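Why do we care about 3D structure at all? Because function follows from shape, and shape follows, mostly, from sequence. That is the central idea of this module. The next example makes it concrete: a single protein chain, its amino acid sequence, and then its structure expressed as tokens.
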Amino acid sequence: MSDMPAVPRSEGPRWLYLHGFASGPDSTKGVAIARHFAARGVEVARLNLRVPTMEGLRLSAMLETVREAMGGDGARAVLMGSSLGGLTAAHVAAVDARVSGLVLLAPAFQVVRQLRRRMGEGAWGLWNKQGWIETDDFAEKRKVRVHAGFIADAEAVDERQGGWPDVRVPTLVIHGRADDTCDIRYSRQWAEGKRHVKLVEVEDGHELVASLPRILTEAEEFLRPWGV
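And the structure:
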């Protein structure tokens, strides 16, 4: 994989990578994707979506950060997102006509439902009762207390779209069948019957690191119409 610098383009869409929950712009997938496309003359900006803070994380703030990064009214954007970043990308595409294409990696559809299932009722109740839950911050290698306000905010964002982002642009979804964080059945349900959505299932877990070569190949082929 080449580390040659990107050749900025004066035309075409802005390419943005959106990391997942408790991750950051220097994640393994984000860096690999940016390097891959840089070697092909495409600059992929890796956004910081730990907004307004990791402790006070809000899905609505993530959406606004992405929309600001896309540029002016006449801009176009290709969004590539992992997990919660994938859900964010889908929500932005559903409401912003500047998005022309999506690549979603293990997107966190139905995020609140999935969090509750993973945590179990005991931990879920504790999160709501004490107002925070401690979790691993993979980007900064520390423990972090995430405020319970994340729940209500994420529910409100989902509800505005009827529980599912209404995306109308060409979309590639890559999801691992062994994903125990974001269940693949939600990606299957969301993609079902959508001719503009291509769902690629791989034998991998949530992180999809073992599937990186497949991700890069699939994404490059899918995004060829955008000038790769």
